[in-house]
Amino acid sequence: MRGALGRLGVDITELAPDDDAKRSDSGASIVVQGTGGEFEGWSDARDSEPLFFNNSGTASRFVTTMCTIVPRGVIRLTGNARMQQRPIGDLVDALRSNGCHIEYERNEGSMPILLDMTRGKPLSMGTIQLDGGVSSQYVSSILMSAPYGNSSNGDDDA
After folding, report:
1. What is the CA radius of gyration of the chain?
2. Comparing 96 with 130, which gets the higher pLDDT?
3. How far is 74 from 62, CA to CA, in rounded Å?
4. Bridge partners of 24?
5. Do residues 16 and 2 lie in contact, with contact meaning Cβ atoms separated by under 8 Å?
6. How buried is 24 (Cβ within 10 angstroms: 0-12 exposed, 13-18 middle, 19+ buried)?
7. What whole-number distance in Å separates Cα of residue 73 and Cα of residue 86?
């Protein structure tokens, strides 16, 4: 996830062991400098270098939804061979129903995927239907990104 966020312009710095004044009690500390929702790494080219998640389903699902709040460009997401067998279809279906343009590049329902925000619309607040029993990661990814989405998707029951 750190690599994908770095590609999007998020600065993540691990504190040195001798920087005790800023370290947490657990001994591991990082500093994250956000972007205010202005992500880098977007392209106008459909063949751009993808964000690579190796075998991290959690990271890929969270970042997939996060990327749908950006109203421009094209970005590709993929993972290793095993990740490309793991399901992401229910999340993609939910995001598509909200107006996001997402394509499967190989197999329906799994990575690699392409988010084309020039052809779809960014994530909007409103009604998104998703079976929470399938994967809590899908629901969590939408819940974490939805507050940053547009104010309405045209539904009156937002």
Report:
1. 17
2. 96
3. 17
4. none
5. no
6. exposed
7. 26
- Of residues 151 and 20, the one with the higher pLDDT is 151
What was the pLDDT predicted at 157?
43
Residues 6+ apart with CB under 8 A from 101: 115, 116, 117, 118, 119, 120
Lowest mean pLDDT among 4-8, 49-53, 63-67, 88-92: 4-8
Pairing of strands 51-52, 30-33: unpaired
φ and ψ at 16, to 5 degrees? -70, 150
Q: Residue 25: helix, strand or coil by DSSP?
A: coil
User: How far is residue 2's CA from residue 59's CA, in Å, rounded to a whole number?
Assistant: 9
Residue range 64-77, pLDDT digits in tens: 998 888 777 888 99
Six-digit token string for 34: 């956000």
d(CA 76, CA 102): 10
Provide the pLDDT for residue 87.
Answer: 92
